[in-house]
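[Meeting: bench + compute handoff]

Bench side (C.D.) handed over the final construct sequence. Compute side (W.E.) agreed to return the predicted structure before the next meeting so the bench team could plan truncations. Sequence as handed over:
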Amino acid sequence: MPRLRIQVTGWPRRTLVLTDTPRPNCRECEGDGGFEYDYGDHNGEYAGTEWDRCTCWNENRRWVLMPLPRLPQWLRRRRVVRDPWGPNGYSNEPPF
């Protein structure tokens, strides 16, 4: 039985999708969906962390439900509110 979840994706366009999730009672990954392990370089120093996906989950399994409408231009603008008493919008009086 699939374990589905609704998500909003933002690329290439905002879309509502149905995605697969890890099996919560998986004996291998315990519901995390994968395994994380650290590895080292040739000197034995920490070089990073790798992540391997568990077989109970396919993170690429998605179904597009519907594209979401774009916001009008006037709602996408962000106005910068500056402090009129401070230089360049910042106050130099304590507390900063």
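W.E. noted at the follow-up: The beta strands are 4-9, 15-20, 34-40, 46-53, 62-67. C.D. will use this when planning the next construct.
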